[in-house]
Amino acid sequence: MKAYLKTGGVACLAACLLATTPALAKTFVYVSDAEDGVIDGYSMNMANGVLTPLGKTKAGTLVMPMTVSPNKRFLYAVVRSQPLRVVTYAIDPASGALTEKATAPLPDSMAYVSTDATGRFLFTASYGGDKIAVSPIEANGLATSEASQVIPTGKNAHSIRADRSNHFVYATNLGSSQILEYTFDAGSGTLTPNDPPMIKVKPDNGPRHIAISPDNRYLYTIGELSGNITQFAIDPKKGVLTELDYVGTIPADSGLMPGAAREAMAATATSGANTAIAGDDGRPKVWAADIQMTPNGKFVYATERTKSHIALLSVASKTGKLTYVTNFPTEAQPRGIRIDPEGKYLVAAGQKSDHIASYKIDPKTGKLSLIGRFPVGHDANWVEIVTLP
Predict the structure, then answer these.
(1) pLDDT in tens, 126-158
(2) Cβ neighbours for 316, distance < 8 A, ≥ 6 positions apart
(3) Which of 12, 141, 344, 372 is at a distance of 20 to 30 A from 153, taking alpha carbons?
(4) CATH 3.40.50.11260 matches 23-272+286-388
């Protein structure tokens, strides 16, 4: 009887522990493969950064930019071939599997996608169409309707992001060397030009992608044509930008010449991995792509596609100013990088590589250590990482 009671007590204790212990969070990585028209999925082991393939999900030729909903339940993927559209996928929290739930038309071939903080609106930017758009997202998280607002911009709109207050939105124009500034009504989803409506970036810089500091004090943009990062202060009340600093990411001995804006890709053409440069003299050019900041705001990383490198910059805690540290070789023609929500690992995708790379981030120095390379489809270009309970 005593033995029975002892065993029963242990079983009861185990059952109670199982009932009260929360399930371990799971982290999933998604990479869009433009040429194959699929999204590769991986699970990430948060103890060592190793990726395990989950399989491929059909999307459509030229699937490129992606973003995850604020509640982490959905992945939105833009397809830049006809019919131009955004696809909503439900993310299975247990397996990471993607299930297509809806599609919505887009007004052009959109090179960038993000959501507002409420998850009710989708922002997109068209490089070739010189426009940005706002599309509604239903209460159930699905994007099914056409854009509610389409706004002409300067030349080559390349990215669009809301600030962390969700009151202001910024859109880069690579060809016009400017950043457009908007106020945002999260109730109606309407963008209104701010005062002033734009800020000019240094000529021949080509502002491309945006990173915003965790404290919402600073905005950083990577110049595709220069490889330089411009730092702006964000006015917390008005949302207007003020340029503070301009820092290089390209080593002096790289042999790279200043870049030039590339022709816009056709909606049914290749992904733009080798799009032409007007007046190209054959010399290697700077071709910067992505910029990401660690969740703690201590480090910034930026990619350059001609030399296939990732630059590391440290961030001053009080001023947000950047200091160039070094460059790391990575996958061929790195278009997209992402950092996991804990800031422990960075994943890089190269358009001319059949592998993606996972790196460990040194918490003190920001330096990257290669964990491993993992198979991926053709023309891998965009990475998203999500952690789910």
Answers:
(1) 999 999 999 999 999 999 999 999 999 999 999
(2) 322, 323
(3) 141
(4) no
